[in-house]
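Inputs:
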Amino acid sequence: MADQALSPTADLDRTLAALADPTRRQIVHLLATGPRSAGALGQEFTLSAPAISRHLKVLRQIGLVSAVTDTQDNRVRVYQLQPQPLTELAQWLEQLQGEWQEQLQAFAEHVEAVSGARAQ
Amino acid sequence: MADQALSPTADLDRTLAALADPTRRQIVHLLATGPRSAGALGQEFTLSAPAISRHLKVLRQIGLVSAVTDTQDNRVRVYQLQPQPLTELAQWLEQLQGEWQEQLQAFAEHVEAVSGARAQ
DNA sequence: TTAATAATTAACTATATTGTTAATTAAATA
DNA sequence: TATTTAATTAACAATATAGTTAATTATTAA
């Protein structure tokens, strides 16, 4: 019974779910080019401000963005991308591809063994 | 207005949403070690057979698994992992990290320019 | 041919997500 | 001080997701 593991997977659950939303991925792309305020981000979309705000909250909760109050205007919150969740996702992908490779390797060796046996 | 793009992103939406479920990710890990029947996969979980069946359907719909009828027993469907959606995900991650790197590069150059100017 | 098995689909419930508008909080400006 | 402005939270509606048990389909085995 594998079921849900002990739960280092829970982070991945939330990171993947967060990134599954196209608006949030677009926000991430925008922030990849540099920090922006919530308002400036909102201007790039036809969504209401609360909608953007809640998308940003989701991204904050998984640690993919951080927010700091602007030093010039304390009403403004400036958002910035944080790499860690993306790193974890990349590592998971690499791990999975490693598992997959082992299987292909084993399969190749199996074929080799069979054709080798036949060749005798 | 960025909004949802033309929609090569729709594939990513569905791939990420599919992988956000821990049961489905576990299924993917199991299949990374080799093909298995729906029943054999189900034995690894404490979920009902219909639940597993629908998880497999989701994975089939995004092209992450394919199913073939067993040649020995036509009642059995054997599932196998397909790499393409994972490749697309990896490529998106790389693209994003590229965008991110440009920003860091630009920032580093900015710092260089400023400290260079100050050094004069 | 009847019963058992593998898998899926149907019907339903519970919960989560995403959007909206309205209200709230806090800071800047007239 | 009164009014904007930036952002968030509250309250609600619509839709999607994931689980269950029951029913269905197709194949194998008794």
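The interface with chain A takes residues 1-5, 9-10, 12-14, 16-17, 19-23, 25-26, 28-30, 32-34, 44-46, 81, 83, 86, 89-90, 93, 96-97, 99-100, 102-103, 106-107 of chain B (CB under 8 Å). Flag for discussion at group meeting.
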